[in-house]
Write a structure and sequence with these properties.
The protein is α+β, with helices and mostly antiparallel strands. The protein has a domain of 112 residues. Helix content is 34%, strand content 17%. The protein has a six-stranded antiparallel β-sheet with strand order 1-2-6-5-4-3. Strand 5 and strand 6 form a beta hairpin. Helix 2 runs parallel beside helix 4. The longest helix has 21 residues. The radius of gyration is 20 Å and the shape is globular. The chain starts with a helix and ends in a 39-residue tail after the last helix.
Amino acid sequence: MRKWMLPIVLLSLLFLLASCSLRGMQGAPFTAENIPDEPPKDEITAAIKQSANNEIDDIIEANFPEVYTVEGDNSNAEIFATTQFGLTELSSVLSGAIEPEEISDVKDNQQILIYPDDFITLRESEEDQDVLLIEVASDEFVRRNYSPNFLSTFFAISLLGNMLDTDDWGSRRQGDYKGMGSLNVPRRGITTFRGGGPGAGK
């Protein structure tokens, strides 16, 4: 092989490997067989109700497997999943453990619970109705990345402005994120169930 051809061949191989790597980052679909094993529903419910933690994000992190991270502007949102609960079931359990400041109606198979520091979105997976997705997004993530047009289908803009502590949030240019990965960021893949109590894995 001629010497000048070697760099070209190596470069081609590198592009091929990079291409394969990017495809691998797309991750598995949100279907039941791709969700890590979970404890039975009764055990999860009891753990949530008996938790001494008063932070809803810690309670969710302690009891459900994280399956996806959405990278936004200066902040991230975490998406968890469960096959043990339906939407209204889990909404009731979470609301019973820590009462949200606001809770939306169910629209398009999703519901949003607003807590002092977090927006919790529950939504059935489009890929498998047996999978319920749980997004935990901080106020900062919502303020910087969420589409006002999307959130205003669940809450009044004036209420959202109060929750996000800004008077002109709905009128300023915001992101176009509409929940559950619509920022088109490659999935990081399905992680294992961390559990181990509030804050585990942080």
